[in-house]
Amino acid sequence: MKLQSTRLFINNLQDNIHDEDLRNKFSRYGTITTIEIKERKNPVGNQTSHFAYITLEIENKALQECMREFSSTKWKGFYVDVQVARESFMDRLKREREESAAQLTSNSVNNGIVGSSDVIVNRNYRIEPSYEKVKPAIHIKHNENSVSIPEANDTIENGTANQSTKRKNDAIDNAKRLQSLRQMKEGYRQQKQFIKNSLSNIVRHQFCCI
User: Fold this and answer.
1) Which of 91, 167, 177, 208 is most buried, most CB within 10 Å of its CB?
2) How far is CA 101 from CA 88, 97, 107, 109, in A?
3) Tens of pLDDT along 105-128?
4) Residues of the chain with pLDDT under 70
5) Domain closes at, from 37, 61, 86
């Protein structure tokens, strides 16, 4: 059977519990690596309750036996509650870092860039049409496949050109929006003048009819 590292939460322990007591009781289920005994104060009174965390290498079958035994019998006069503890923040952080590092290494190996003995890197030059100048590039050959990667200067100049083009396009768009607003303003002004003239004609007509 496969052993797995499991962190147990043991609740409702007696007050004078010691590490050795827990080690003697739980070592028959697996190999204990850490024991942490803690206490919790009752906010209402002065009483305290004790609990512990135990990490051990244990088989799944032995884990089920352990939880079943403590749920049905007393230990040192108490029914002890044994559960699989939630993963602590530090343990989760460590696990996620290890998984990320393993994934990064795996991706690099699969892409043939890291960990391969037959990677050949050649440096030559190519011509960038938009600038009409010679630019260095790195060619990586792996398993008869060739990949061209531009160097940093190439990326910087392309980025500068893209920013310049974007600024020009933004200026054109702003000019179009300004022209549209001016046309709308002129349209509103003409409508206002038309309404004003119409009202004046109505008033004059009423006075003429009196």
Assistant:
1) 91
2) 20, 6, 10, 12
3) 777 666 655 444 444 444 444 444
4) 1, 43, 45-46, 108-161, 203-210
5) 86
Per the structure, the count of domains in the chain is: 2
Domain range holding 19?
3-86
The amino acid sitting at 26 is: F
| Structural domain includes residue 147 | no
**Of the residues 69, 86, 103, which one is the last residue of a structural domain?**
86
3-state helix, strand, coil in the chain (%, to 5): 50, 30, 20
Q: Provide the 10 A C-beta neighbour count for residue 12.
A: 14
pLDDT of residue 22: 93
- Please choose, from the candidates 11, 57, 75, 76, the residue with its C-alpha nearest in 3D space to the C-alpha of residue 38: 11
In a domain, residue 110? The reply is no
Structure-token match 């890197």, residue found? 121
Rounded Cα gap, residues 6 and 12, in angstroms? 20
Q: Give CA separation, 173 vs 92, 167, 195, in Å.
A: 50, 10, 33
Tokens describing residue 4? 């797995």
User: What CATH number has the domain bearing residue 52?
Assistant: 3.30.70.330
Q: Is 126 helix (H, G, I), strand (E, B) or coil?
A: strand
What length does the chain have?
A: 210
pTM over 0.70: no
Residue 143 CA: distances (Å) to CA of 64, 114, 146: 51, 13, 8
Least Cα distance to 121 among 142, 91, 104 occurs for 142
Q: Specify if 57 maps to a domain.
A: yes
